[in-house]
Design brief:
This protein is of the alpha/beta class and 300 residues long. The protein is built from eight helices and 13 strands. A seven-stranded parallel sheet has the order 3-2-1-4-5-6-11, with helices on both faces. A two-stranded parallel ribbon has the order 7-10. Strand 1, helix 1 and strand 2 form a beta-alpha-beta unit. The longest helix has 20 residues. The protein is globular. It starts with a strand and ends with a helix.
């Protein structure tokens, strides 16, 4: 019998990669999306769901499923998050609370949450492990922290296996819309023939991971029967901001300018993925540099 899966955020940056990976394994998928999908997929039943109100009424139309993958989330596109407090709470906190509660009473075997590093305490430790201290600051970080806590609490009470995948910075394989991060800003500047402005000395580093590698991590969670808990998912090879800027600049023949102060200069996002390697046999296929260059090759 074909296993059924509920995937929220099926048309999102990471969700679409997960959807395609699931289809390669012949799962029957119920995928939620706020907007209609742009492609047709066999064995996918689309369910319209707008979580901006915190509503999970769509769950009443979902038949029994074995697995739940919660990828729907709201990520603020500006540095000031206060204006987004309500929607962060609705999409990331309230809907997660209701979804994971639903899992408890609907015989779900395993629920996987796409989580984040946003709520980790700063300054970051030299190497980020799964037990890194937490200190959520701002509406987005707090809402994602609450989502992870909801997963663990309801799984404990409901008897299903919880998995939280803490993702580093996802990079799509194709020219989809990036979140408004430093890579997206620099690509925009370079394409407009503007100088790439790097704040500080460029020594801050960040782990960029291909969405196809994230999708493979999800498949590993599903195929490893007793896997549960928190796993770091990244490329395992971070990039300094100077290195990232150089890659973008070479792709578009742009210039780089260093100026000002980077308030996060001391952040060294060196993420340990050893737990995922050991327990899930997770093996990323691309380093940060390779993930970025693959994406840029689709733009140039």
């Amino acid at each position: 019998m074909t296993d059924r899966i509920l995937l929220t955020g099926g048309t999102g940056l990471v969700g679409i990669a997960i959807l395609k990976a699931l289809l390669s394994k012949r799962f029957k998928i119920f995928a939620t999306s706020r907007n209609p999908p742009t492609e047709e997929y066999k064995d996918v039943e689309w369910v319209k769901a707008d979580l901006s109100s915190g509503s999970t009424d769509f769950l009443s139309s979902i038949p029994p499923v074995r697995y739940v993958i919660h990828g729907a989330a709201f990520v603020p596109q500006q540095s000031t998050e206060e204006d987004y407090r309500g929607i962060c709470e609705a999409v990331n906190s309230d809907s997660s609370e209701r979804l994971f509660s639903w899992c408890s009473t609907n015989n779900v075997e395993k629920a996987i949450l796409l989580s984040t590093y946003a709520f980790l305490r700063k300054p970051l430790e030299p190497v980020i492990h799964e037990n890194h201290p937490m200190d959520p600051q701002g509406p987005y970080a707090l809402s994602k922290y609450q989502s992870e806590q909801s997963l663990m609490r309801h799984a404990r009470d409901g008897g299903y296996l919880p998995v939280a995948l803490r993702l580093s910075s996802p990079v799509p394989l194709k020219s989809q819309q990036l979140h408004n991060n430093v890579l997206a800003k620099w690509i925009q500047s370079a394409r407009e023939h503007k100088v790439i402005n790097v704040f500080g000395t460029g020594l801050r580093c960040q782990d960029f991971v291909s969405t196809s590698d994230i999708a493979q991590a999800v498949l590993k969670c599903l195929s490893t029967p007793h896997s549960q808990g928190i796993y770091n998912i990244g490329s395992g090879r971070s990039l300094h901001m100077e290195e990232l800027a150089t890659i973008v600049a070479k792709s578009f023949s742009a210039d780089i300018h260093f100026s000002g102060v980077d308030v996060n200069e001391n952040d060294r996002s060196v993420i340990s993925i050893e737990k995922a390697r050991t327990e899930l046999a997770y093996q990323p296929t691309q380093t940060s540099a390779q993930a970025v260059m693959s994406f840029l090759s689709d733009l140039t």
